[in-house]
Design brief:
Strand order of the largest sheet: 1-2
Helix content: 55-70%
Strand content: 5-15%
Largest sheet: 2 strands, antiparallel
Number of strands: 4
Number of helices: 6
Distance between the termini: 75 Å
Radius of gyration: 29 Å
Length: about 170
């Protein structure tokens, strides 16, 4: 068991503790307030807002006409297939996915999956259009053209391939 004098030596002194705390705070503030960290934070916030807008666009404008197609006669998110019937299965089947799940049936909810795939492609298309518009407005293409290098047969940037062959 350590004595009182030994225990006091193990505890940090208040001036040493203040210096270490100040040093840690200074290094954290240097990291957190750099330009690129703030740019990433703003980018993530804008991406979250963009995702909300695109999800609303897909749910409100794109999916309703798709659900009018003959093989999607209901809400696309509610499309499912019963793999194993539950104990309360009626001869007409289940009306909703929630009803089937509450009954204990094993279902494959392919409608929600198709909805997410459609949402993914709409987001990808929207980002592609934004990149094209940015490239047109700023004369700096975000989308880089890749070609197969004749020397190494890998897909690389067109500019790098020109330099590689010279």
């Amino acid at each position: 068991m350590p004595r009182l004098e030994e225990a006091q030596q193990l505890l940090p002194s208040s001036s040493n503790f203040k210096e270490r705390t100040r040093s840690a705070w200074d290094s954290f503030s240097d990291f957190a307030l750099r330009d690129n960290v703030l740019e990433v934070a703003v980018g993530l916030i804008l991406a979250a807002a963009f995702t909300t807008v695109v999800s609303s666009f897909v749910d409100g404008i794109i999916l309703p006409p798709i659900s009018l197609l003959p093989f999607f006669n209901r809400n696309l998110d509610e499309k499912f297939a019963v793999l194993r019937q539950g104990p309360g299965y009626e001869e007409n089947g289940y009306n909703t996915l929630k009803q089937a799940l509450d009954d204990g049936a094993v279902v494959m909810a392919y409608g929600a999956f198709l909805s997410k795939i459609i949402r993914f492609f709409v987001v990808a298309l929207a980002l592609f259009v934004i990149a094209r518009v940015y490239g047109w407005a700023a004369n700096d293409s975000v989308i880089k053209k890749q070609v197969k290098c004749k020397a190494c047969r890998k897909k690389i940037s067109e500019k790098v391939c020109r330099l590689h062959l010279k």
